[in-house]
Design a protein that fits this description.
CATH topology: Rossmann fold
CATH superfamily: Class I glutamine amidotransferase (GATase) domain
Shape: globular
Distance between the termini: 19 Å
Radius of gyration: 16 Å
Oligomer: single chain
Strand content: 15-25%
Length: about 230
């Protein structure tokens, strides 16, 4: 059975962690496939372990205990065409890995770990998104628009950090695409072309998944894990 590494410090009391487990089950039931989600603490990430997984989901719940290990795992997935999904904190760390290793801003940092770092690509939001639902607009022709079958959606947020507005022009220099924004024009979805599935959302789609209505993004990710060449 293919397995997905759920990267993060699992907390059984966390709504987003419980929803991550449930969303995988919902999608597997709907699609008639079997995929196992396995939580991997960030301190335990290492190459031999990660080689056994068919996909990586960088889960909510940052700051992670080992940011460097988390960024290594994202880089591993990106470079080796392993399906990779990041939600909330996962989205933030996908952008940070990209800034460091593709755009070569080696000092790119995250304010949750060091608010006084010299090169913050992820900063504290002026207005917290935690507990809010907001409408999104997707870029026509993007993977995320294709998955939703729509150019708009409404999703829930649980975070207090996002993309530093001063860095957006830098993030547009490379192949990564900004394909979703909210009503305020802020970046909420990123994806990497020519990859089976490399997609991050600042929102937390798994919290809206149900057995009767599994979330389309989770469906697409699970399908990519099972058959990455089909995407």
């Amino acid at each position: 059975m293919p397995s997905i590494a759920l990267l993060g410090e699992f907390d059984p009391t966390s709504k987003t962690h419980a929803a991550t487990n449930a969303a995988i089950e919902h999608s597997c039931a709907a699609l008639g496939i079997a995929v196992e989600g396995v939580w991997v603490a960030t301190e335990d990430i290492e190459p031999a372990l990660m080689a056994g997984f068919a996909g990586i989901w960088v889960a909510p719940g940052s700051p992670y205990k080992n940011m460097d290990n988390t960024l290594w795992a994202i880089q591993y997935a990106r470079e080796n065409h392993i399906p990779c999904f990041g939600t909330c904190g996962g989205f933030q760390h996908m952008l940070l890995e990209y800034a460091r290793n593709v755009l070569h801003f080696k000092d790119a940092h995250h304010a949750e770990y060091d608010p006084y770092a010299s090169d913050l690509f992820i900063s504290e939001l002026t207005c917290s998104l935690a507990g809010r639902e907001m409408q999104l607009d997707f870029v026509d022709g993007s993977m995320v628009a294709h998955i939703y079958g729509s150019l708009t959606a409404t999703e829930a947020y649980y975070c207090n950090f996002g993309v530093n507005p001063d860095k957006i022009h830098l993030l547009k220099r490379g192949p990564l695409r900004i394909t979703g924004s909210d009503a305020e024009g802020e970046i909420r979805v990123i994806e990497l072309p020519d990859h089976p599935f490399f997609l991050g959302t600042l929102f937390v789609p798994q919290t809206k998944s149900t057995l009767n209505q599994p979330h389309p993004l989770v469906n697409a990710f699970v399908e990519a894990v099972v058959n990455p060449t089909a995407t």
